[in-house]
Amino acid sequence: MEFEQFVPKTFPKNLLDKDWKERKCYCVKGRRDFLCLVHNMLVKNDDVWLVTLPKCGTTWMQELLWLVLNNFDFDAAKNEHLEVRTPFLEFEYIINEDLKTALRPVEMLTSPRLIKSHLPLPLLPAELWSKLPKLIYVYRDPKDALISQYYFGRSMGFNMDKTLEQFLTEKIESHEAECDFDHVTEFYFLRSQPWLYYTSFERMKMNLRQIIEDICQFLDRSISEEQMHQMLKHLSFEEMKANTKTNHIWEIEQVRAKHGLPYEDHSFVRKGKVGGFKDELSSEFISRIDTWIKKHLARYNVTLNDLLLLDD
From which residue to which does any coiled coil extend (predicted)? Predict the structure, then answer.
């Protein structure tokens, strides 16, 4: 996949005091017009946005949020794909490359809309910075997230010519991956804002009940003990892995049809572990990635534990 640098028309200068001239953004080559469309899209005051880097617990939080926003309608959740109920903003254009229909899945949603995106703060709709709808951000240890990206890619026919270590080496040597640290730190430094709820995959694994309670409070929704019990069961790793509506089958089939590449079958909800990278990588390679992470986070004066909220 070829990337190119992209400069948005405006930056969210009202949110963070930083030198935006130094902020580099990259996009897949050929998607500049789509990003301009996103920049100008209409945002509703009662929208709820879920923003993450890929494979950071996005689907887990997405299902949680949809249920909270839809009165814990478990029957409806089990009868429609998650991606249909709450669209991935970039997906329609990735598949069909048609600007006329690119935002249709989001525009067809009834309010309150739950919208998922992997775009960084400067490439999200400009109206987000003025209307400030509720936004949830989830981060995850990059070592686990990148490994999960590797296997998810192989499910669609990508990365088939690379070993895991080759894939990770390319990632940590790319300029685009460096921008992932801007992606997370910009939201991390906004975490005290009343419109933003920032958490991590690791915190969700530690105490899912608390996260559900926090989200309900953040979205001004109530939850009974019976509903909490149902949520904890429905959102358990075993249930999520067995649930055909939360394993992105709807999206994966479209990507496979578009590219027609040989692929491997890997469940989207694969291991769901904290520290699963230890089973996949040598200690030497883990040390190499940790050095890469520390080097880049030093620019922001934060640690990985800070970003994962493990020292709170």
Answer: none
